[in-house]
């Protein structure tokens, strides 16, 4: 290597001495040979082995007392299938946060798990059973059906675990849980028992969301609203043909008033529920019905039951809905239920749990509800009571799991009183003890919790946590009954004996199961070992990160239960991400066929592969025939050429490139593939740097004597940009603005390191000049530092490339930040950009041997440009650069191939060879190009001047901003004068 350091006689002896110290003469520390780096970035090859390593090392260890800790819980994916892009977004965000915390020296505890997803799993397994064996769960019985679900669970949990491994997640796999394992089950039962004995859980008869297909109550989050602009045919389970919704029916109800023939016309979209009408209601100030307001007890004849029902006045009634008169059916409508309570009207049930008319309504008994709808309309028409039918815009509530039209039913269920629990949770945010990020969701938090209604926690399913409640009954004459809550039958019996004061008791356990959200609301507690173990050290978590759509259904309920059982919130911060949509902003759904799996993006998939997966889901019973056809059409429209292979790192980087705090996040596969090319750019830069370091025999030891006095302005500039990028990255991570970090890395690697600094070093490194050694060392520092900070986002490629870049000393990069130097180099880069643009417009390339002539507009500009001619030459891809001071425009020779201004500092012209002269006709005439440029400059000046004249700007902007603004105006004016004189 010493032979490579032969320097010219003009080299300063002091510089030579320093350089000898800077460059090591022997390779004390080895790093991987560049020969191990492939010519191109191939994600599949570099990710495979690292995933297994991640899984093997994913174990939480005993945390040392002096080490800061960071605890987080992965929101458990449902065991209904593999991960979707929404899961991938959450897992990536959390993994980036955890990796960053590890880099800061924290002991990280990130707990994985899966959710049993009661309704969703029962539905999908029953579909599979029907598809494979033409059987229902009732055909095989509860015990065998549950065995089928446990088999399904094992397969899906393994798939989910593999998907998380492929995403590179550093989860603590030795802490993995399932929401129905023994530890979780005990905690769920204990929570129910404690809440029951505190009087917070009770058995009540109330209105609930009901799915007739499932024969179960369902949660609000499982209710989808189908928007309709008019008559719409909807497939409903159990019916051979589609049912039409989106119509308004006006029905006449006769008024009984001294025998006069008078009617009130009632508007409804649900004539099938007429059998349960208990009143007709109007707004008290609706002038159309004011005459009845003064009458005492106006009654109407029910058109079908031939019974009298009252006319009531209630200010909840919307006078603009239809005729302004509505029927009150409290057993099947939420608003009607509240109105009936206020007016002390008893509800009349119309439908059975399966959606058939009850036997009480003899004429229509045991018939399906939507068949009865048509029969009722027919009968009303025959009696001339059906006044009119019109198109109507509406929202139809649907069960998202069964695709059945939701029915509201009055059922006896278990309810958790939430009003005080909700206020407690609200207080935590209002006091600042609990932080919601972004804080715009605090309004949503308040809306849900300030008047939190009771939570129906029971479900009529087979799969789930069976409710630990027992009905105890005296087997004597008084037949007294009580409900008790207990872990087992023996405990229940003991509690019942104490309450009933009798020894002749029979007890029966409730067959219902708990709402899935009840068990998931306990996760911060249950996965920490509560109530059997001491949870200090594991509770509370530092952060919960999840989608904003389950802020109430999951996050708020975790806070409510955490507070009631420990007095402390289960986490300190709540970070909410947006919902992943497709590239066009549409929610991903089976009906649109636009669902993309992370695996398809990572490994790529042909159109045929995508279609095969849809057919496989259909075969497994996950998709029905209609969903399958829609999915096939959608995937063909979106991905006619399939999905290109992008790799895990590109997927992660793309997901983090969006503002995760936005309400929706539009994912575009094309953007992901572009980011793969970005990573390949880094790969190529690393190959160049590693090869250069190997060729120059630069070792890790070289950085021990790092001497800043050897650094040129360009070296200092790139280190300043590195310092800025790393600071931007770290601040972005602390504030959860991941998109600022990814944008910073893109700018640094693309625009600054690769396209600028690296290009200026190639010649020196090739010649093995003294500057080349310095520049190669600076490249190593920049590449290593940036890769280390980017590693949380793209762990696989960064880990691989860091093996090949020599390890620099621990260097305080922040001290290199220099805003004035950055401004100076930025001005030079703007000059280079203007030159490249004119070359491109005139189609001048290397073969035309371009010769660049710069004309400095002032002595100051001359002094700024002079030291950087070598870099300008490299960045403008010209064969030579000549610099002159411009004293008058006649110095710019009109025989130049093209000429223009390059900002306020200089003008320039380009000379070319004879080959270009032959192709000159293809080039755009320079006068036109300069005229276009003049027009753009004048518009820019107008924009800056308008803002400068704005009093608001002058008042609010800082003196520094105003100074820069005025300077820009002066520079634009100067450049405009120069280009005008040229033209």
Automatic annotation (TrEMBL):
Residues 62-659 form the Aminoacyl-tRNA synthetase class Ia domain. Residues 917-947 form a coiled coil. Its EC number is 6.1.1.9. It comes from the Eukaryota. GO terms for biological process: valyl-tRNA aminoacylation. Pfam families: Anticodon_1, tRNA-synt_1. GO terms for cellular component: cytosol. It is an enzyme of class 6 (ligase). GO terms for molecular function: aminoacyl-tRNA deacylase activity; ATP binding; valine-tRNA ligase activity. PROSITE patterns: AA_TRNA_LIGASE_I (PS00178). Residues 715-849 form the Methionyl/Valyl/Leucyl/Isoleucyl-tRNA synthetase anticodon-binding domain. NCBIfam families: PRK05729.1 (NF004349), valS (TIGR00422). Belongs to the class-I aminoacyl-tRNA synthetase family. This is valine--tRNA ligase. It comes from Glossina austeni.
């Amino acid at each position: 290597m010493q032979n490579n350091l032969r320097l010219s006689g003009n080299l300063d002896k002091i510089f030579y001495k320093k350089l000898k110290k800077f460059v090591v003469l022997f390779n004390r520390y080895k790093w991987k040979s560049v020969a191990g780096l492939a010519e191109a970035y191939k994600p599949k090859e570099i990710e495979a082995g690292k995933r297994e390593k991640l899984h093997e090392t994913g174990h939480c260890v005993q945390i040392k007392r002096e080490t800061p800790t960071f605890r987080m819980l992965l929101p458990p994916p449902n065991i209904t299938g593999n991960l979707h892009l929404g899961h991938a977004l959450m897992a990536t965000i959390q993994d980036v946060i955890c990796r960053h915390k590890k880099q800061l020296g924290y002991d990280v505890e990130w707990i994985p798990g899966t959710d049993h997803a009661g309704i969703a799993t029962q539905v999908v397994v029953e579909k599979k059973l029907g598809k494979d064996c033409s059987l229902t769960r009732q055909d095989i019985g509860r015990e065998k059906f549950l065995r089928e679900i446990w088999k399904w669970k094992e397969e899906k949990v393994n798939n989910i675990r593999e998907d998380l491994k492929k995403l590179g997640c550093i989860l603590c796999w030795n802490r993995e849980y399932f929401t129905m394992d023994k530890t979780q089950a005990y905690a769920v039962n204990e929570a129910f028992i404690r809440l029951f004995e505190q009087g917070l859980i009770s058995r009540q008869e109330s209105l609930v969301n009901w799915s007739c297909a499932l024969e179960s109550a369902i949660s609000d989050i499982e209710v989808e609203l189908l928007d309709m602009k008019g008559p719409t045919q909807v497939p409903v389970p159990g019916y051979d043909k589609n049912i039409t919704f989106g119509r308004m029916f006006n029905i006449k109800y006769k008024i009984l008033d001294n025998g006069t023939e008078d009617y009130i016309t009632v508007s409804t979209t649900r004539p099938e529920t007429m059998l349960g009408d208990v009143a007709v209601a109007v707004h008290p100030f609706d002038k159309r019905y004011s005459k009845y307001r003064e009458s005492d007890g106006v009654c109407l004849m029910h058109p079908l039951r031939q019974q009298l029902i009252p006319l009531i006045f209630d200010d909840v009634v919307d006078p603009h809905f239809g005729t302004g008169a509505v029927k009150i059916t409290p057993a099947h409508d939420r608003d009607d239920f509240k109105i009936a309570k206020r007016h002390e009207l008893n509800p009349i049930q119309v439908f059975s749990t399966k959606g058939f008319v009850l036997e009480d309504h003899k004429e229509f008994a045991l018939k399906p509800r939507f068949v009865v709808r048509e029969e009722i309309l027919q009968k009303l028409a025959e009696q001339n009571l059906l006044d009119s039918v019109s198109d109507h815009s509406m929202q139809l509530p649907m069960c998202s799991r069964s695709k059945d039209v939701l029915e509201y039913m009055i059922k006896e269920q278990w309810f958790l009183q939430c009003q005080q629990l909700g206020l407690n949770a609200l207080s935590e945010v209002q006091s600042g003890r609990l932080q919601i990020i972004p804080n715009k969701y605090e309004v949503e938090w308040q809306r849900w919790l300030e008047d939190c209604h009771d939570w129906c926690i029971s479900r009529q399913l087979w799969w789930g946590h069976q409710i630990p409640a027992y009905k105890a009954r005296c087997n004597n004459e008084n037949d007294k009954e009580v409900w008790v809550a207990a872990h087992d039958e023996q405990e229940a019996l003991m509690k019942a004996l104490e309450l009933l004061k009798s020894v002749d008791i029979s007890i029966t356990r409730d067959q219902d199961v708990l709402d899935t959200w009840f068990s998931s609301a306990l996760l911060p507690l249950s996965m920490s070992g509560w109530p059997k173990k001491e949870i200090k050290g594991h509770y509370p978590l530092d952060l919960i990160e999840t989608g904003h759509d389950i802020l109430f259904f999951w996050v708020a309920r975790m806070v409510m239960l955490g507070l009631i059982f420990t007095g402390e919130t289960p986490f300190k911060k709540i970070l909410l991400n947006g919902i992943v949509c497709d590239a066009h902003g549409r929610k991903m759904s089976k009906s649109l066929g636009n669902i993309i799996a992370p695996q398809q993006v990572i490994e790529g998939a042909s159109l045929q592969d995508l279609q095969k997966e849809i057919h496989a889901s259909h075969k497994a019973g996950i998709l029905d025939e209609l969903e399958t056809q829609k999915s096939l059409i959608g995937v063909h429209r979106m991905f006619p050429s399939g999905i290109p292979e992008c790799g895990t790192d590109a997927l992660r980087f793309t997901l983090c490139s969006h503002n995760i705090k936005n309400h929706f996040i539009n994912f575009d596969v094309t953007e992901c593939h572009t980011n793969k090319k970005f990573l390949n750019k880094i790969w190529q830069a690393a190959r160049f740097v590693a090869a250069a370091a190997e060729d120059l025999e630069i070792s890790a030891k070289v950085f021990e004597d790092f001497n800043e006095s050897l650094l040129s302005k360009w070296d200092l500039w790139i280190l300043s940009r590195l310092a800025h990028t790393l600071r931007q990255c770290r601040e972005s991570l602390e504030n959860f603005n991941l998109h600022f970090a990814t944008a910073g890395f893109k700018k640094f690697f693309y625009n600054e390191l690769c396209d600028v600094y690296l290009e200026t070093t190639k010649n020196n490194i090739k010649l093995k000049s003294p500057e080349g050694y310095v520049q190669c060392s600076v490249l190593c520092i920049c590449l290593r530092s940036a890769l280390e900070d980017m590693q949380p986002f793209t762990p696989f490629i960064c880990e691989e490339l860091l093996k090949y870049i020599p390890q620099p000393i621990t260097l305080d990069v922040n001290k290199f930040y220099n805003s004035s130097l950055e401004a100076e180099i930025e001005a030079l880069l703007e000059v280079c950009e203007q030159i490249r643009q004119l070359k491109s417009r005139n189609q001048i390339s290397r073969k035309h041997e371009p010769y660049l002539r710069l004309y400095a507009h002032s002595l100051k500009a001359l002094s700024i440009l002079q030291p950087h001619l070598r870099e300008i030459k490299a960045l403008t891809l010209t064969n030579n650069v000549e610099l002159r001071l411009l004293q008058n425009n006649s110095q710019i020779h009109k025989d130049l191939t093209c000429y223009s201004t390059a900002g306020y500092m200089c003008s320039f012209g380009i000379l070319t060879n004879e080959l270009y002269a032959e192709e000159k006709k293809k080039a755009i005439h320079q006068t036109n190009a300069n005229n276009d440029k003049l027009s753009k400059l004048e518009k820019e000046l107008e924009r800056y001047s308008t803002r400068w004249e704005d009093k608001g700007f002058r008042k609010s902007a800082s003196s520094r901003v105003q100074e820069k603004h005025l300077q820009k105006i002066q520079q634009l004016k100067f450049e405009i004068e120069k280009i005008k004189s040229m033209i």
